[in-house]
Amino acid sequence: MAFKERVFSGVQPTGNLHLGNYLGAITKFVALQDTYDCIYCVVDLHAITVWQDPPELMRNTREVTAAFLACGIDPKKQIIFNQSQVAEHAELAWVFNCVARLGWLNRMTQFKEKAGKDRENVSVGLYAYPNLMAADILVYRATHVPVGEDQKQHLELARDIAQKFNVDFATSIHAHGYGDAFFPQPEPIIQGPATRVMSLRDGSKKMSKSEPSDYSRINLTDDADTIAQKVRKAKTDPEALPSEEEGLKARPEADNLVGIYAALNNTTKAAVLSEFGGAQFSTFKMALVDLSVAKLGPIGSEMKKLVQDPVYIDSILADGSARASAIAGETMKAVKDIVGFVRRS
Ligand code: TRP
Q: pTM surpassing 0.85?
């Protein structure tokens, strides 16, 4: 059976959206809306797998929504909503808890990293997290998922769950008229050059919301002056810029700044170096300040405006949730029939 093409992706509302989230995820979401029907979800159910302060969780959920809007996702054409408003995510996740095998989850590297040495004391939700992520995608029978490198293993698990569900329930799926497969095999979308944005203070570390120094990252809410100041203070080395990419190899900070310039300007590092090769950082940074302020300044000010209007943000989420529920509800009805749950008709 051919499945309708549909994109789903999620962002956790855990605070401090930064340039890494923007170049690594949100710009890709924006680009995909020209080609696909897209569903973009603020995954608050995922966020509480580790402790979240309740008022802050609400603030962060609205802030991620504001970022989606400020970056140019069209809430009328696409669906923007928060996960907890569509109960079917949790409902399908339970079914998947009974499809996925313990051995599969035991292989998840992100759980191992996040749980660390304190395994006995992390939430059960943190362990079951990938099953919920599979439900997020499959409750819309989404076919394409833009994800970063770190989420690829979870997406593979979603494919395994879809496959096992299709096989385990094959007879019932067929009997209910769904052909050979009820769930599609969702595929990752990795577009363009992987943009790994590194810390502005240390080119060997990923830009992160939890790094203590705010100068290590550009937050999407930073205003033009702050952006300019952070770029000016970014760590560099004393050499001039090379003319070839090869010359960036042992220079993580130079590599990072050139990469950021290329990504913001929609070109390649090679193209940036053909323009700036031989230039001193002082010159290059002036250009990077101008570019960053031009691209990110308007997003920051739009986000500021939006977060001051929670009534508007909440209306976007309510509308998106209603439209998402309509799709998810249909899937869940079918799943109940397939699994053998008696339901209200
Ligand atoms: N786990 C993803 C992350 O931390 C967020 C997420 C939740 C997601 N559900 C998803 C991403 C479904 C893609 C599809 O980044």
A: yes
